[in-house]
Amino acid sequence: MSLRHFGIAGEIITPPFSFVATSHAIRWAGATPVFADIDPVTLNLDPAAVEAAITDRTEAILAVHCYGVPCNTAALAAIASRHGLKLIYDAAHAFGVRRGGRPIVAEGDLSVLSFHATKVFNTFEGGAIISPDRETKVALDRLGNYGILDEVTVLETGLNTKMSELNAAVGLALLPHMDAAFAARDRVATRYWEALSQVEGVTCLCPPGQKGHNSYAFPVLVGEAYPMTRDGLYQRLREHDLFARRYFYPLISDMPMYHHLPSAAPDALTVARRAADRILCLPLYPDLDPVDLDRVIEVIRRP
Ligand SMILES: *Cc1c(COP(=O)(O)O)cnc(C)c1O
To answer: pTM score, two decimals?
Structure first.
């Protein structure tokens, strides 16, 4: 499904600290990503940086709820409405996330979920687009079915984006277990938090008790006070057959298809760059063996 269908073809403001798909979606729509820096605490788009990046070619903001931590949706919505921009959320990490009882995917003009096997809820491959009103949903469903209106009427150049029955069956089988999966993730995150939040040079980013996210990941920043670099720790864990992820590294703006963009200049995006150089997401999944969990903690405490 392409952003082109919403008549977007100019510039779209987006964070460089995300999975490549976020910027690729903009490119496939024929639009140009404009990278704006992120907030040092949430690692989500910094609304002030978004405002500063707006030009007369800006048409939309594509923000990411990184690790399921909600963006500053109020500030982004205010900017979007002040400048007449569309506001779209890459909610790939944000399944099940609520704020004030309201699903986070209800924010903005559209939210896009991923159901890839690495996400909190999965159908092996797949995803969903959450639209704010029935009209948009009907339009999206039509675009996902070749633009077909009825037996004899085709309105636009749609695609086939239908989920297969098998993938959907996997999702339906998993849905009843999601509450248990969230609780199990929270237990792992709480154990990490208790064991690691006092380790010098390690900054834990998502406090498990402070709800509003779904314990999709347990991201830490490895700072100067730690005895080794982030890459050193990443390798040390690997030596113990423990696989943490540098998620996200490198920045999208440093990748060959984007680094020529003016907004990708190496001296810009300083917060995102610091984060990409320090970030490490520790192993976290619902049935993580407590013995393995303790091994991860032990290596980090005594590298
Ligand atoms: C996983 C992910 C995607 C891509 O999801 P797919 O289901 O593979 O298309 C996009 N954005 C972010 C932030 C992701 O983590």
So the answer is: 0.95
